Structure formats: structure tokens, C-alpha cells
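hey all, quick one before standup. I had two proteins in the batch that finished overnight and I want to keep them in one place so we stop losing track of which output belongs to which input. First protein below, input sequence then C-alpha cells straight from the run.
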Amino acid sequence: MFFGEFEYRIDEKGRVPIPPKFRGELKAGVVLAPGVEKCITAYPLHEWRKLADELTSGSVTRGKLRRLNRAIFATAFSLRLDGQGRIALPIPLKQHAEIVDEVIIVGVNNYLELWNKVHWESEKAASQEQAWQIIESLERHR
């Protein structure tokens, strides 16, 4: 399980360290993809495979499934951590998330998100505000 928030600087070669406590989970590899919001999602290989299975077993038409697969898989990157626990962020993903020199790595249960610091502060405030409303609505439905 991934949780917590970590701030790093990207080095001159475009690499960012992965928090040490997460490196073991990512030893087999990590898949980076554009997030729905302006972030990069980072999945351990086994979680990416689960996501891929879920996406391809849905009840959508073949045409929609092809489009979904193109949108998800054509923009993803499979990487390995280097000997110092870093990954090189692909330029298209850095552009998508507007990450330049600082990155916030956030644990989101079974995957990580990488954020531009300013975007993360805004998203964190909105998420925290809405979280309590969502929790209260869940409690009413029990």
C-alpha cells in the first residue's frame, strides 16, 4: 500500500528518486501513464496488469475498447528503477503534468501520483475538502 507525500527535485538528466519505502514494491518495474488530472500515475507492474485486465474485460463495444486501449496504453511507459532508486521521467509525461524541476510524489493506495508542486497543493486542498463530504455520504448509505 502506498501512502504519504514526498517532495523531490528532478536532476539534470530528468531523473527523480522514488521514496525508499516504495522501491521494493517497484523492483519488478513501474508503468508511468498520464493521470486524468494533471499528474503522472505510476503503477507497480502487477497493478498495471490488473488495471489492463479490468479495462479489457469491460462491456464496451470493440470500437470503444480499441479507442480506450490506444488512449491508455499508447501513452504509457514501462521503466525500471536504476541502482539508486530513480526513474527518468519521459518528456511527454512531464509536459502533461507540467513538471519542471520539482515533483511531489503521492501514495494513492495501490499506485503513486507524481505532481507539479503548485497543481498538487491545489488538488490536495480540493480533495481534503471533499473527502469529508464523501465520507459522510458513505456513512449514510451503510
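OK second protein, same deal, sequence then C-alpha cells:
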Amino acid sequence: MKFGIIGLNGRMGQEIRTLFEEDRHQLVFSYDKDGVIQSDIPDVLIDFSLPEVFQKTAEFVKKFQCPLVIGTTGLNEEQFAMIKALSEKVAIVQSYNFSIGIQILLKATELLKEHIGDWDIEIMEIHHRFKQDKSSGTAKMLGKVFDRDIPISSLRLGNIPGDHSVYFGSMGETITLSHRATSRRTFAEGALKSAKFLRKRKHGLFSFKQVLFSK
């Protein structure tokens, strides 16, 4: 594939570039605070940058008429409406988290939900000091598994790529489901899977869950 990255010089941008090039794909477009660098038209755009950049991302998607993999968190309702509108013309994978392990954590959480009755439930997430949104999109995604509001605690510490835990407690016992990302590479691997998934789609809005589990 010929690919483009929004936010090339960010930590995720560099991780994505490294992994895609290891898989013999060619970087032909990038956009960050230093401007645009382009040598060809990309087959897919990858955006793990910031919400305030999304307007430019949408413009590039329209210009190139290419698929989009977007892992930006903290997007507002208007921006999600723009993604939905774009997906009528091109194929898009949007997710708060591109980790395979998080998808397994979600499935395990859904399973426990059926058996815990009126147990107490709380969620904790920990990320690096540079992450701007609280709570994380992944924590909110875990909370949506339940049919009630779930308290979420957030910590911003050092260089932690991402820890998420779901705690269940009754009066006599507790259960904890946890996932830890030890490297940003896991998210880059999810972005690569998503980019390959989109090659076979002309338009539509897809989740990372669909990328992993659709036949």
C-alpha cells in the first residue's frame, strides 16, 4: 500500500511508519505541524493525532477519496457526524483502541456482566502524562458495556502507553479484569490490520471489532 500519516512526527505516527514500512508499504504523504510532504496519492490515511487536527484530516480524505483509519480520541459529536458523512463516500475504521487485547477484555467484560447482578463496578485507566483527554475513550467504551453509569478513575503518569482495569465487587469477593499495553506497537499493528481490511471496502463506517472478527 501507499499510505499517509496525519501527525507523522508524533509518537504514534513514528510507530505506525516503522511498522508499515517493515511490512513493505510505502509512505507517500504526511501532515503535521511542519506542513505537508507528498510524493504520491495515498491508498489509505492513518490518523492518531489530535481532535483539533481532524478538520484537515477530513479535507485530505475528500481530496484523495481514500479510506481512513482513525484512532484519535477526544472527538466531539460534530466530528463524529463528519466521520459518518465521510463514510458514505469512503471506508473508515474508527476506534478508541486498536489493541487486540482490549477487544478480548471487552468480550470478557460482557461475559461477566451477565453474572454479577447488583455487584459494584468501577473502571480505572492510566496513561502517559501527555494524553489530554480524561477519561480515555477506551474506558468509556468499557463503561458502555453496562446498562448503568460506571465510575471511571483516570491517572496520567510518566510514559505508560495504556492500562485499563474493570473491578467487580460483592460483599464477599472481588473480580478484576485488566489489560496493559506494554508498547505503542500494539496499536500500530491494529492500524495495519485495519488498513488491510479497508482495501476490500468501498465505503462504510467500521469498528476495530469488525476488523478482527468479521469473516
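Flagging for whoever picks this up: Residues 100-113 form the longest helix (14 residues). Residues 82 and 111 are 33 Å apart (CA to CA).
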